[in-house]
UniProtKB/TrEMBL annotation, chain A:
This is Translation initiation factor eIF2B subunit delta. Residues 15-36, 42-53 have a biased composition (Basic and acidic residues). Keywords: Cytoplasm, Initiation factor, Protein biosynthesis, Transferase. Pfam families: IF-2B (PF01008). GO terms for molecular function: transferase activity; translation initiation factor activity. Residues 72-86 have a biased composition (Low complexity). Component of the translation initiation factor 2B (eIF2B) complex which is a heterodecamer of two sets of five different subunits: alpha, beta, gamma, delta and epsilon. Subunits alpha, beta and delta comprise a regulatory subcomplex and subunits epsilon and gamma comprise a catalytic subcomplex. Within the complex, the hexameric regulatory complex resides at the center, with the two heterodimeric catalytic subcomplexes bound on opposite sides. Residues 1-122 are annotated as: Disordered.
From TrEMBL, chain B:
Keywords: Coiled coil, Cytoplasm, Initiation factor, Protein biosynthesis. Component of the translation initiation factor 2B (eIF2B) complex which is a heterodecamer of two sets of five different subunits: alpha, beta, gamma, delta and epsilon. Subunits alpha, beta and delta comprise a regulatory subcomplex and subunits epsilon and gamma comprise a catalytic subcomplex. Within the complex, the hexameric regulatory complex resides at the center, with the two heterodimeric catalytic subcomplexes bound on opposite sides. The keyword Methyltransferase does not apply. The lineage of its organism: Eukaryota, Fungi, Dikarya, Ascomycota, Pezizomycotina. InterPro entries: eIF2B_beta_subunit, IF-2B-related, IF_2B-like_C, NagB/RpiA_transferase-like. Residues 115-124, 201-213 have a biased composition (Polar residues). It is found in: Cytoplasm, Cytosol. This is Translation initiation factor eIF2B subunit beta. GO terms for cellular component: cytosol; eukaryotic translation initiation factor 2B complex. Residues 110-136, 201-222 are annotated as: Disordered. GO terms for molecular function: guanyl-nucleotide exchange factor activity; translation initiation factor activity. It comes from Massarina eburnea CBS 473.64. It holds the Pfam family IF-2B.
TrEMBL record, chain C:
Component of the translation initiation factor 2B (eIF2B) complex which is a heterodecamer of two sets of five different subunits: alpha, beta, gamma, delta and epsilon. Subunits alpha, beta and delta comprise a regulatory subcomplex and subunits epsilon and gamma comprise a catalytic subcomplex. Within the complex, the hexameric regulatory complex resides at the center, with the two heterodimeric catalytic subcomplexes bound on opposite sides. Keywords: Cytoplasm, Initiation factor, Protein biosynthesis. This is Translation initiation factor eIF2B subunit alpha. The keyword Transmembrane helix does not apply. Pfam families: IF-2B (PF01008). The keyword Ion transport does not apply. InterPro entries: eIF2B_alpha/beta/delta (IPR051501), elF-2B_alpha_N (IPR042528), IF-2B-related (IPR000649), IF_2B-like_C (IPR042529), NagB/RpiA_transferase-like (IPR037171). Residues 291-316 are annotated as: Disordered. It is found in: Cytoplasm, Cytosol. One of its GO terms (molecular function) is guanyl-nucleotide exchange factor activity. It comes from the Eukaryota. Its main location: cytoplasm.
Amino acid sequence: MSETAAKEAVQPPTESKDAKPAEGEAPKSAEGETAKKISPAELKKQKAAEKQARRAQQKTTSGPAATPQGPQSKEGAKQQQKGSKQAPKDDKSRPIPTRTKPSQTNIAPPPPQQQSKREAKQDPKQLGLFFGHLYSQPRKHSMVGTSKDVHPAVLALGLQYSSYTICGSTARMVAMLLAFKALIESYHTPKGTSLSRHLIQLLGPQIEYLRDCRPYSISMGNAIRWLKDIIVKTDPSTPEYEAKRDLLEEIDMFIRERVTAADKLIRDVAVTKILPGDVILTYASSSIVEQTLLQAHASGIPFSVIVVDSKPLFEGKTLARKLANAGLKVRYFLITGASHAIKDASKVFLGAHAMMSNGRLYSRVGTALVSMLANAQSLPVIVLCESVKFTEKVALDSIVGNEVAPPEELLSESERYALLHLKPHLPKSHPVTTEETPAEGAKSAPSDVLKWIEASKNLHHLQVLYDVTPAEYIDMVITEYGSLPPSSVPVVHRLSTNI
Amino acid sequence: MAPGAALAPGLTSFLRSLKTNPSEHSVDHLIALLKRRQIRNSRPCAVATTALIEKVVGEFKGHDAMKLLDRVRSVGRRLTAAQPREVVVGNIVRRVLGLIREVVEDNVGGDLIGTSETGRSTPTQHDHGFRPPLNSSISSFSPLRHAAVEPMDASLYASDMSDSGELSRRPPLLSSHTSYAPTSSAPLVNSLFGLFSQPVDSSTNVSTPTGQASPDGKGAHSLNLDRLTELNRSQHFDLKGEVMNGIQELQEELEQSDKQIADLAHEHIHANEIILTHTASTTVQKFLTKAAKNRKFTVVHAETYPHDNTATHEVLLTGRKQGGKAQDEDDKWKCLTELGIPVYVIPDSHVFAIMSRVNKVILATHTVLANGGLVAAAGAHLIAQAAKSHQTPVVVLSGVYKLSPVYPFDLDELIEYGDAGAVVPYEDGEFVDKVDVEHPLYDYVPADLVDLYITNLGGHAPSFLYRIVADHYRTEDVVL
Amino acid sequence: MSTTTSMAEKPLPSFDIVATYRRILAQDDELTMPVAAIEALVEAIAHSTVSTVAETLALLEHHTAVLKASIANPISLSAGTDLFQRYLVTTLNRPAALNLGPSDDFRIIRNHLLSNGKLFVDRAKQSREKIASFGTSFIREGATVLTNGGSRVVGALLRRAAESSTMRFKVVYVLSSSKSSDSEGGLKTVADLRAHNVPVAVIPDSAVAYSLGKVDMVIVGAEGVVENGGIISRLGTYQMGLLAKSKGKPFYVVAESHKFVRLYPLSQFDLPIEQKILDFSIAADAKAASATAKPSEDEGVADLNNRRPGLTSDDGVDFTPPDLISGIITESGVLTPSAVSEELIKIWF
């Protein structure tokens, strides 16, 4: 019995690339057999061996094999689709950083060389200063090497993640759950296994793929844990269609309760904090803050908004646009102008990616700066956060756990254009100047600027996506359970996970 | 420099045109450049102003010091009115005015000074011989001047005329709004004793005591200078020549200022430090490259988007600042990356996130104010505040020419706003229509966020800056 | 200063310095204590028959001591007397600087002092006006200013700002409930400002923290500015300084330059005066106590008594350290506390 279990357990790892032991163990624990005490350890070893083999394989094959592969056609089609979708967007608004993948920007040189060169370069260069521990894997931008079990909806989702099309903790979680709904709908339990076990295993590759496209948000992690929990609790005797139906309903209810209804409750409380004549300052873009402001405006309270934004994502611009279209008076600053913006503000509303158990706010990078300024001026800082974003993790600073973004994104297309003229001025020892000039003449693409930066031994671009705001800068956290001081986050987290 | 080709309006073209045009023309030219912001940032403005004033003084005829003062002052007024936010223009003009006064006093005999009564002599009371006075009296144009102590006796006092002018002439921190500036200019010492001294020597007292109404004050002052000019004529000293020498020293100071600041680099940067900086400031880059020669450290550089980010990247990639004006070849420096210093470029939003690992913050500034605060590129306040919350020392590099004697009553006036199109391009018309886009170019950083100022005279605490202001500017000149 | 031999010489027995001082103060309620003290000392010299430097200085010392002994809070007054002493020391010891012959220096000084007594007073008042004119640059349009008075200069500054037609600002005035003549002066200022269409809110000491959220800056007066740049002023000022600092509001002090005192207090309890503010007692003491709330004797008030039972909280003073002060406005401009130290060092060394 344990052997078959072990064999079954072996199968999914061969399909997936890097199976996390945790995910492998969950179905095991569901078996409730004593055999599971032994097999997980064995499984772990097997999986580790598998992992190594896979990795070695991947390193050798991913380079040259990237382009001319079977699934390439599908991938190419998808990419072109993406490209065409994105092209009109680029035309409309020039300054929005083009979130193209490297494989699209290169005209002449073949992409795989670029990619392998980059990967090779990343080792000798001192990675990311003190963020080195976050550079474990380069982000995946294509569907190369994906397990065949990954559902098409999830594939598309992953690409949307890595291109920031879907951005924002709640949005990503909801999109992921919807994609999983599609997965469950089209799911058929193969013979010989039960839905609960097999579905969990099937989730594995999806989750890994998504993680490779972009590391999880805390809300996604919580949702996945919850989902696995209910799948596992499914009674094996229920017929498949019923089980599926129940699962889908559960997911719907989850989204309804933890997101939609929670948002409504939070909005209602937050709106009471907006007084006539207030100047509300917010940073980047948070869906819940946006909803709150729109609701307050709709209820007739006269107030105005200041939006502070930063590159490269410029999320605040979309928020400002939406608010202005709704009729609010909006002022827009970049983060460098935040000191000026804060002088006129009366309250600060912030969204969250996660609330840590030591009361710190984990949110878009730059939030800490805004909170610091607000605190220096004794302005109330209010965080709007659904309980699904609470985590038991703790963070002392922004370096310990963060997400590193590709450094290419630091310079937008237009910025690279602006630097092109520097080619002749590059220092003599720069590797680029020693290369032969391409035969096509002096037409250099903006991506050349990236090449210069990469080639330069000591110049690095560094970008992370999140930062941690100390608890003393935060006055109030509004969740669907009520308003609390940041120190009470672990209390609420325990409440919400025990329900 | 493009040979013969028409240069874009800017510093170089201005300097070239100075050689050929009459001074009045050049004044108008500079005013136009300032108004249109074709010449911007402290150093170019300082260089241009100095060159212009040199020309103006050069064309000045006669030996009348007062007329020269008036001429320079009127030019200065026009220049500062053209661009009040380029404070350095006013600074240079005030330095020159102070220089003229000093030259006059140097050359006028001791008897003028001697006839003034207690008010004048009160400063000498300090030097009872057992303790040197604390006000520095060495010419402010000596670049190595620190606000040091110089022992002096009363006996020396009569003979050492070069010191007399500076003695106890500490200008308090006045605003340009008040009309009482000239009279209340007497330092506290005089004013403290001035309570007693005034009726004895109202007209001859060069350092006007308190209590005099402003019109009289100015009058007394000019009265004094009239006497001086009378004496001048009788003594035939080369006013113009000495003033020109002084201006040339000033120009040298401007050129040398970065180098002198950089010479202090090894004292402040140590091995394996992580330094945070921002903007593409020449001063900071030279400071760091000097330190890089024998220290190994890491630099984290905030982009300063959108104010300066292109320039920042330029500097980091190539080690040279581009820009409207062409640089002299020797102004190039090897970029840090060439010297083996790892440089990490981060967006400005990351400053708080990484501050816990940063050892030191080095900032450049646009202007330094008399209360120790500074006006620096946008984002500086963020950095300084984040550094404060992490107890990281903040060091500001600035030449003394950026130090302004004017007390900042209205900070909003000092902050310049830039083109909102740099933040959101105007093509996005709908957005720009409905949303108020603002683009402040500068930040005010209060004095308590700065730990150290490094100028070409050495390192100082922010609370000491008033002394340096006193050494370099005359109170009578604070109001142009 | 040599005082050994000249101690034998006494002033005319009929000259009562304290009475003179009080008379001068009573004559002109615009006078500050230091200036009145100087006037009194000048008169003392006039009445005396001293003819040498040493005698004069000794006389001065004697009178100063008497004066200081008779006033409960001599800090402000000592600013004037010390300054005067210093001035005399320096001028009298430096005849060469005066370009006078050695024999007639003293008489000339004396004559100068006596004939120009009035001028000191005028000049002191002018300094107040000058400071007031600075105030209009400080108070921005639409600002709210918090003050507890503490000096007539503050009232003058606010009044001047109110008179300027373009300035719109509000004042929060902290008035203690005691009936000191200080609060009378305060009420007068409040009435004045209101007459000039300046909205004034009067609050007790306990509401300072509450109101700081709506205040843009704090302006207070001082009785004395001490060597490290801190100030000695009416009880309650230190509190305001602490609160303003914790809320990040600028805290400005207005003081004429003749209030600079040669003191270096290290704490509230390091002042050279006796204050009975913290007066612990138990029930048995209450019966024996004969506490009377004396009217305060802050600067400019003519009511002085010769007893020195120690100041109570009605007329007490406290010490505000320099790190709480954003700037000291004198007639020479705005000084940072370190600039003040420098000035004092220059005089006294």
